[in-house]
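Spend some time on this chain, tokens included, and walk me through the fold:

. . .
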Amino acid sequence: MISRLLTATLFSAVSILTLIGCGEDDTTIIKEENNDTIITQESKITPYQRIAILSGTKDDIEKIALKISDYVVNTDEQAVLGFPSNWVIAGANPHAKETYDGDSDLIPIPVDTGKEVYKSRVIEFCNGAYATQATNTGQQRGSALPCEVAVHSDGKRVYIDMLDADAIFTIFFPNTPDPDGKLKLMATAVKSEIRGMVMASLKGENNLTESTQALGPEFTNSELSKIKDNDIYLVTKYKSHTDKIFTKSDAKKLAQTIIEKMGTEEINADAHIEGLSINSKWRSARPDPIAIPAVFVTEACSPTYAKMATRLGAEYITALPCEITTYLDKNDDTNRTLAISILNPHFMFEKMFKGAVANAITNLGLSQEEAKKYETLASTVLDDLEKIVNKAVSDSGLELTKIP
């Protein structure tokens, strides 16, 4: 997903990355007991965490990403690691020995260091049992899945970073009823199991160091308690012109049409859709949607905007790409509603990238001119995604009408 600005002229540029509630002093809890004041520091939550560091260069990124992925697809995690259920790599076919494509399923995200651009790799971990628990809280939340791990390098070391599942549950599942604590336990298990698989896969690598370094912005529970579901997920629902009864296959068809409209690296969305931002080159990260229980997830990638995001720091790689979820709405028991959920770019930039521009100015040499370009980034990305989705809805053949 900046209260301290270096110059007044940068205020509008960096305000897009300001967390709601900045300026409020809610980092402490004050209690009065026996006329004594007790000040307790609130715990901090960060969305990103480093798992491991090992010797290597940018040439080793793909090899290490493949090693992690091969371990997951070739290991029975229940038998070997004692997990309650097995994991797969997104894009893998569990009915075909979890085969996957190392080129398309390990997503290459461009990283702009300010001096060079290189490709990192994003590995997406999927677990049917945990995903079912997540989407049972609301199908729109499929846009917060799957679980992402990034492999990147500074030229001397290779870093393995992940979205911290404990934090992601708190941030992306706001105000979710959890009376028996099972959902919180699930998030903790996800974090532990992904870490366990990564470390097991890299056992024996030279100079491997396990890490628990927190990365990215810090939040307090007070700040996070203000977040609402409709801040995060932009949901649009549709019915058919002909009052058609939909099936899950129709949701998949809609997802596949979104992918077709985005295109691939060779022929991207610029060739299919008018009005997209200049040189955005949107394309699908995958040839097929990810089938998550009750939803289908498509992933929109723009090398232009990915470079802007990673220019702020490689720790933000796992916040990419942009997730779009289609599903047969379970809230309509007549099966006459299809829905599309988009992770709100404004939320992502304001929360998941909190303070990133100011940090990049101070630590990475980001210029004021470069920083100003972030002012309209969220609106531009959202406008592009909505154009892509609207074109897919129009061309899907499902005769859809938006529900007001």
Summary: Confidence is low (pLDDT under 50) at residues 1-33. DSSP finds 14 helices and 17 strands in the chain.
